From TrEMBL, chains A, B:
Transmembrane stretches, start-end: none
NCBIfam families from the UniProt entry: hydantase
The entry's keywords: Hydrolase
The keyword Nucleus appears for this protein: no
GO molecular function, one term: hydrolase activity, acting on carbon-nitrogen (but not peptide) bonds, in linear amidines
Cited Gene3D superfamilies: 3.30.70.360, Zn peptidases
Organism: Cladophialophora psammophila CBS 110553
Residues annotated as signal peptide: none
Name under which the protein is recorded: Peptidase M20 dimerisation domain-containing protein
Similarity field: Belongs to the peptidase M20A family.
Length: 468, 468
């Protein structure tokens, strides 16, 4: 058995991966939570009680769905395509009409900044993304940005100036569907990825590899000059409203998720080597069947995940030589393992590797395991979590609130490296996302926006009290 | 659960199937063992004791390997290519020089007939094939034809005229590698396939589908006028020497296999339907993972085959949508099941279907099972088997002979429908075939040819005694 921790290119899956993840090979060191600011959380909050406009938010979500709307009720709005250009132009003009100054950074991320009383504090970010998967829905990412715009409208109609500036952010290419690194712009901003790496990402649909993220930014007029950097363009904090993309809130009858972090996750690529043998003439006892071994491994990794209270998924499997009459000599499959705890996930990998080696040997096969991507668990900042917690309890009632970790990556993973961050989740119908059937109701969207608004106002209140 | 017995085109695997099998959809009715002749087996055999020339046979095998020889020691001689044309021309001139009359039938099969004393009996066939798999070896099929030519040489040098004529046969496209129906020419001869169906088979490498079996026969000058029919061009019997293509003789230390028939075999295509879910956010208990189900099915069918003393192989598996971060909604895999008994194989299919349904349901999935090809067990004719048995015992000693069923298809399956048939097996090193490493030693090849010679002479002796 050979276990390698490598950074090999995903050649095998390159045409099919729908990545919302980052690849370790392009990371820049150092990263991690490098800021030290902690606000007092004991100060009594004195925030105004504004209410978001449910219908206005709902209408905005569905009116702007015109850019990329598909007949099945979904959206196809791949990053930096003409539909993305259109919704970006709408974002710029809409936020400008609400009094914002719009900055475009080198990654094309849009920062619509509304001035605060303080002229020295960096803005509180309210960010998510307007791009979608190829057959995406109307809420993933979009709800977070549109809720930010709804917050601008509420503050505007109430004539409220926050202490810190606010920045509603549309992070470029969060999905990684067109340029195959997910959350890439927040990753450049946080220093996790090099700008050159990100700029050179080819457009997935362009076989000539001439269209890159940078050339597409230029083509649609959104290659900005503001450095894509937390140092040059800092944030005081980052809040993100998102649909859950899972069924937990719905199953448990909860209305709001207070997101305390993001679970540890990553992928193994497992290659089982056996021997080509004739299906009709080779006795069972003589065989070295790569797929018999693989089937046992797939069942075993599920048991390991269940025992550890983690998640395991084998999403990709293929056999060679693809002949019904030949015992396959090679099977390759992916293993996605995730757990709230980085340490427990590491133990899951160790156990999986040992068990796969044992199963291979028992079946006269060999196995190679490559750890091609892994992302440690992210713990969001207690200052932000407590703002979301209080806001959620206030808006939905304590019984309707669940504290949870996110199971998927979000731009907040990267902002969390550089500024206090937390997220708000609202239920996804049936746990469905990345699909036209993705749905959260007008009430669910509005409640999420309300919690986002109150979270931001609570954090602003803390910044103000800390400054005074 | 849906179980269908269909004849669907093998679209999914069409580019990858290495078929040595026939498809039920092209069968012509009626077929089956329709002849009634049975010879007395109690008559004392009085056959001459000629000996094949080991070195001459070995040299012929390896000299003719020039047509299609590959650097790794194998042969690539796809049916009706220029290399096949070359070896056919050699076959014709060699057998003619040995006094044979060569008939070419409408399928391009070559019948090199050596006259017997009787002018009314059809010839005793000694047949196999000279085509190979794309990366084939030097013995599969070839040994059977070259042993036939060695027999002609032995009889010629001993001035022996058999009672019945003999026909050394090169059956066209046995491998089915270039024209994707294996054993197709013996199948047309036996009436199992229509001539038009066989003629229209496209060459696998020709994307335009213009090159067909018939056009390629014309191109290389081997489209004969003799009807490809057991009625117009009958045989008294058919004997075939072949490498085992399995490790049983080698493992058991036996020198010759007396082949009593061909096991029942066939393919299921299994489609498991689950649900696309997010690997990071969907709890394990909520999942309907098509691959988790499939892995259990693959382990279960192996248990079923082991318990029934049969064989099961899952050679092809693929998942959809091939995303490591998505619980797959669909998995398709093949199941090859074989057993000496048609009835037991039917029970294996029934149990497999029931278990797959149960497993799918337990995992919130559904399953479709298509029985796309099945071939009942073939029992060879006792007259021919007894000739091979006596010849083998005489040549190798009783302790070195094993009676066995063939695990793979051969032209003898089809001839067995229309005339008494049996086969001789010799060991394959490591059970390897369809591979350049395929090997049987000079001694093993010669012993097989010796048994083939004596089998034919014994059968001829019986025909003579029955006629007199």
């Amino acid at each position: 058995m050979l276990i390698t921790r490598t950074t090999r290119a995903l050649g095998l899956f390159s045409s099919t991966i729908k990545s919302t993840s980052y690849s370790s090979f392009s990371r820049l060191a150092p990263f991690g939570q490098t800021y030290t600011r902690t606000l007092s959380t004991t100060t009594q909050a004195t925030i105004p009680s504004y209410t978001v406009n449910k219908d206005r938010l709902w209408n905005t979500i569905h009116e702007t769905a015109q850019w990329g709307a598909t007949p099945d009720g979904g959206i196809r709005r791949l990053a930096l395509t003409d539909t993305d250009k259109a919704v970006r132009e709408w974002f710029v003009s809409t936020t400008q009409s609400l009094g914002c100054t719009v900055k475009v950074d080198e990654m094309g991320s849009l920062f619509a900044t509304r001035a605060g009383i303080s002229t020295s504090l960096p803005p509180i970010g309210i960010g998510s993304h307007l791009d979608t998967q190829p057959a995406g829905g109307r809420y993933d990412g979009i709800l977070g940005v549109q809720a930010g715009i709804e917050i601008l409208r509420v503050l505007e109609e109430n004539g409220h100036q926050t202490y810190a500036p606010l920045a509603v952010i549309d992070w470029t290419n969060e999905e990684g569907a067109r340029f195959n690194t997910g959350m890439v712009s927040s990753g450049v901003w946080s220093g996790r990825y090099a700008l050159d790496y990100a700029h050179a990402l080819p457009a997935a649909e362009d076989k000539t590899k001439k269209a890159t993220l940078k050339s597409e930014l230029e083509r649609i007029g959104f290659l900005g000059s503001v450095p894509a950097s937390y140092q040059a363009n800092p944030l005081s904090a980052h809040f993100e409203l998102h649909i859950e993309q899972g069924p937990v809130l719905e199953d448990e009858g909860k209305m709001v998720g207070v997101v305390t972090g993001v679970q540890s996750m990553g992928w193994l690529i497992v290659t089982v080597h056996g021997k080509n043998q004739h299906s009709g003439t080779c006795p069972m006892a003589r065989r070295a069947c790569a797929l018999t071994s693989a089937a046992r491994m797939i069942s075993r990794v599920e048991e390991i995940a269940l025992a550890a209270d983690g998640l395991s998924t084998v999403g990709v499997i293929n056999s060679w030589p693809q002949s019904p009459a030949t015992v396959p000599h090679k099977v390759v499959f992916s293993v996605d393992l995730s757990h709230h705890s980085t340490e427990v996930r590491e133990r899951m990998i160790a156990e999986t590797s040992a068990e796969f080696g044992r199963i291979a040997q028992a079946n006269k096969c060999t196995v190679e395991i490559e750890d091609i991507w892994n992302s440690p668990a992210v713990q969001f900042h207690e200052d932000c979590i407590s703002c979301v917690r209080e806001a959620a309890r206030n808006a939905a009632g304590e019984d309707n609130v669940k504290e949870m970790m996110a199971g998927a990556g979000h731009d907040s993973v990267h902002t969390s490296d550089r500024c206090p961050t937390s997220m708000v989740f609202v239920p996804s119908k049936g746990g469905i996302s990345h699909h036209p059937d993705e749905y959260s109701s007008p009430e669910q969207c509005a409640l999420g926006a309300q919690v986002l608004l109150e979270s931001v106002l609570r954090y602003d209140d803390q910044l103000k009290k800390a400054a005074l």
